[in-house]
Amino acid sequence: MDEALPIAGVHLMRAERVLYVRSDAPLAVLSSAVVGGELDCARHIMNMQVPRGYACPSPAADLEAMAHELGIVEPFVGLMTAANVEQARVVVERDETMTVVAVVTVGLGNPVAAGVTEVFEAGPGTINIILVVEAQLSQAARVNAVITATEAKTLALVEAGVRAPHGGPASGTSTDAIVIASTGRGISAAYAGPITPAGALIARAVRRAVGTEQ
């Protein structure tokens, strides 16, 4: 069932196995997605739930099969998670000039501390962040947004007391992914660091979404 997000022309569908953000018009995107990470423009963003212990040799094929089920016949951005997508958090932050929507799933079976945790075979547990921004974000601003969102995610985990294998604070999980999607409408933002108007909204949305999952 579709639910309209507070950004014109952008919709969210929650189903048993997939979280699907659909836009009537193309969105400018930057992502670390399993599928579509090379795209700079897309109308479809999926976060597909997979079983714990998922070890398919071709995750792209599974995402493409899900896209086919949803009737998507054009390039899409596709993420995967073992977290329950029906329990995704949708957080809205806005000011007088722009709106930011964070659609976040949090699985914490795999906490790590970047720069501390050694290489290991990842188990289930992923924090997937989809950010939709009602603004014109420059390429630099979209990269800024990734950094700002990641800092906010890590702060939320530290505040929640999530621990990495070494016993210290976790900075995330070993398989986190992010999508920044902007509508290209409204105000222009050259940057999105944490004290810019765009970055402040992004940071608050992500911190709230990750923190409320604990």
Can you give a write-up of this model?
With 214 residues, this protein is an alpha+beta fold. It has one domain: L-amino peptidase D-ALA esterase/amidase, CATH 3.60.70. Helices cover 22% and strands 33% of the residues. The protein has three helices and 13 strands; from the N terminus they run E-E-E-E-H-E-E-E-E-E-E-H-E-E-E-H. It has helices at residues 59-69, 139-160, 197-211; strands spanning 2-4, 10-14, 18-31, 41-49, 77-81, 89-94, 99-106, 111-112, 127-133, 136-137, 172-173, 177-182, 188-189. Strands 1, 2, 3, 4, 5, 6, 7, 9 and 12 form a nine-stranded mixed beta sheet that branches. Strands 8-11 form a two-stranded antiparallel sheet. A two-stranded parallel sheet has the order 10-13. Helix 2 runs parallel beside helix 3 (197-211). The longest helix has 22 residues, at 139-160. The model has no long low-confidence stretch (mean pLDDT 94).
Topology:
Layout: E1 2-4, E2 10-14, E3 18-31, E4 41-49, H1 59-69, E5 77-81, E6 89-94, E7 99-106, E8 111-112, E9 127-133, E10 136-137, H2 139-160, E11 172-173, E12 177-182, E13 188-189, H3 197-211
Parallel strand pairs: 4-5, 9-12, 10-13
Antiparallel strand pairs: 1-2, 2-3, 3-4, 3-12, 6-7, 7-9, 8-11
Helix pairs in contact: 2-3
Mean pLDDT: 94
Please describe the biggest sheet, giving its number of strands, its sense, and whether it closes into a barrel: 9 strands, mixed
Name the poorly predicted regions.
none
**CATH superfamily annotation:** L-amino peptidase D-ALA esterase/amidase
CATH architectural designation: 4-Layer Sandwich
Distance between the termini: 26 Å
Given the structure, what is the number of helices? 3
Give the proportion of residues in helices. 10-25%
- The string of secondary-structure elements, in order, is EEEEHEEEEEEHEEEH
As a whole number of angstroms, the C-alpha radius of gyration is 16 Å
